[in-house]
Amino acid sequence: AAAEECVGQVVLPGDVLLLPAHPDEDAERLRLSAGAAPRGRLLCGPGLRRCEAGLLVTKCGLLRHRQAGGGAAAAGGAYWVDSQQKRYVPVKGDHVIGIVTAKAGDLFKLDVGGSEQASLSYLAFEGATKRNRPNVQVGDLIYGQFLVANKDMEPEMVCIDSSGRSSGMGIIGQDGFLFKVSLGLIRKLLAPKCEIIQELSQLYPFELVLGMNGRIWVKAKTVQQTLIIVNILEACEYMTAEQRKQALAKLSGN
User: Fold this and answer.
1) Does pTM top 0.85 for this prediction?
2) Could you give the CA distance from residue 157 to residue 151 in angstroms, rounded to a whole number?
3) The domain over range 94-171 is classified in CATH as 1.10.10.410
4) Whose CB among 82, 118, 128, 180 lies 3.0–4.6 Å from 155's, allowing a Cys bridge?
5) What is the mean pLDDT of residues 75-97?
């Protein structure tokens, strides 16, 4: 089936999506040549894998497409499958919230919600040296990103960016509330100019950390305000935009 015709429809694992190699010719193969113009470059997102005929679907869900910012090239932009996945699979570069489960020599072991634990070096913090070690204890929450994540190796996390800065990563405060939501909701909340976050910010001041592994950490001024925000975020998955606005209007009225 042609990829453009399947956008917004349910696709199943094993389906092959055909894409024209050039806007002017009705070809069934996706040209992956190195000399292709960057503007027409196709990004292959979660749930899809490149194959000779085009894109192979690996997850069940709704096919989504976003046009390339540079132009309206038929093969450009990004395709991905929007699915309700519960088990998180580590991806290099993803920012996640991990829970420290053990100290093993110079490494910390973290539960990130995947099939195996991730490792984190004590040197992977801003300003950390052999003498100046970070004060990390078992049970602490760590916000970091994956440096290594593939099926053949143990996932490895760091709390610094490419220039050695923390950029907001590191140990998350002791207070606050940690809870889990679906990966689909996390992607929605992490979208630029997310309406849900903007509406909540008008309700109470609060701190929020979102992990791509479905974990959210929230801290407001009081425990009651924290729990209200937690309940709204959990309910957002099942509420329409109108229902959410009505619920927030009732809370702000109080």
Assistant:
1) no
2) 15
3) no
4) 118
5) 80
